[in-house]
Amino acid sequence: MKPIDFYRSEFISYMESKFVLREPVNLYEPINYILKLGGKRLRPVLALVTAEIFDGSYKKALDAALAIEVFHNFSLVHDDIMDAAPVRRGKMTVHEKWDTNTGILSGDAMLICAYQFFENYDPVTFRELAKLFSKTALQVCEGQQYDVDFEVLENVALAEYLKMIEYKTAVLLAAAMKMGAIVAGTNNQNQELIYQFGLNLGIAFQIQDDYLDAFGDPKTFGKQVGGDIIENKKTYLFIKAMESGSAVFKKELLDLYSIQPKEPEDKIEAVKSIFQESGASKATQEAIAFYTEKAFKILECLDITDDKKLILKEFGENLMQRTV
Question: Cα(213)–Cα(232) distance, rounded to whole angstroms?
Fold first, then answer.
């Protein structure tokens, strides 16, 4: 196994070789823009690493990894339009840099491109990858709809929230790992276990993303800090604050989530204060640790060597220590 940065570098080089600017420029330039904005490349790297964890070649997994990354960025382009988000990875979002119609059309083209990368596999592997991808893509859309629905609900149960982030975020990370396992040709049990590992790590990742949205460093987070608060999103922090048992906190929070001030800084700070005083901030950090540990326990059942289990565990530990 090679260092994580090696797989990231190899993936970026492969992606750049596949996405060169072509006509019509107004369709493909926004695609190149969003793909080259950076980001952690978490999902494609996991696909490549997983392929080698199960004794396959990362090179064989490059097309599957690229399909996952292109789909992920497609979803970001459309999510940013829905959220009216001005910033992505510290830069202007596609719809802000161009316009909404361009964002919609370029995003649609990205979804089609993602499917095309599976065509480079043999028929059996193609079928397995495409079947998993279609299921995952639909779940991501369902998760996004749940997220939108929650914005107008006064109360969202914790179980509902967890289902939403499982679909919106975790399944794509899990699918990336399972795709690496499929390409490597490992058995069905290993495929399912690595999927569950990725799923729990993905849940922890999204809860942490919610936490960083409120309490992250604006210089490193890459998105507008407090964006979820401005958009009145029912995050783990919000739900835990509502469950704190304090009628005062609940009323203040609902009042704050009913307004959209022109200058949102005061609203953001007031909500963050409630998150901290209610214990929601601490409970959120505990949830991140819980799902991370749940993922690590699954590693014990995988039919791989201990040194490879350690690689996956260290990757998860580094991911949960992120500040961006």
Answer: 12
8-40 burial code (b ≥16 CB/10 A, e <16) = bebbbebbeeebeeeeeeeebbbbbbbbebebe
Within 19-122, residue ranges assigned H as helices are 25-35, 42-53, 62-83, 94-97, 100-116
Q: List, in order, residues 6 or more apart from 29 with CB less than 8 Å away.
A: 21
Task: Return the beta strands (E) in the chain as ranges.
Answer: 87-88, 91-92
> Positive or negative CA dihedral for 219, 221, 222, 227?
negative
d(CA 316, CA 298): 12
* CA dist list (Å): 53 to 9, 66, 175, 310: 18, 19, 15, 11
- What is the set of domains in the chain, with CATH numbers? 4-320 (1.10.600.10)
Q: Say how far apart CA 274 and CA 118 lie, in whole Å.
A: 47
Give, in order, the Cα–Cα distances in Å from 142 to each of 72, 155, 164: 15, 19, 8
Provide the token pair at 252.
């203040």
Tens of pLDDT, residue by residue over 19-72, are: 988 899 999 999 999 999 878 899 999 999 999 999 999 999 999 999 999 999
